[in-house]
Amino acid sequence: MLGQPPVHLLFAAQEGGQGGSGGFDPGLLLPIILFAILYFVWLRPAAKDRKKQHDLIQSLKRGDEIITQQGLFGTVSDLQETTLTLEVARNVKVKMLRTAVLRKVPPPSEGADKSKEKKSGS
After folding, report:
1. Average confidence (pLDDT) per 10 residues, the chain, 122 residues
2. Which residues of 78-99 are buried (b: 16+ CB within 10 A; e: fewer)?
């Protein structure tokens, strides 16, 4: 017992020899890289798609031809804050949520009309 130091001095000497907490922990590198990949592959494109859909819904106006998520084609005849009235046939109107709009139907281009005329004339 005379040659051995007290126990609390042994623990203090061991703690001081480990270098403290000033260095970078390499174990954190993998989760950071995985989160960055997740962000650029999944989260960022999803946020862009949500913004694009929100902009589409806000830009709707009377007379726009649209396709709904259920597959209905029609013309917007009335707009409210959260709903719209879609005319799917003459005197057939459906009231639905704006969020059900999938996309606008692009107007027919003149080039497509000319190509149809050539095919029917041949």
Report:
1. 59 51 80 92 93 94 94 94 94 94 85 58 53
2. eeeeeebbbeeeeeeebebebe
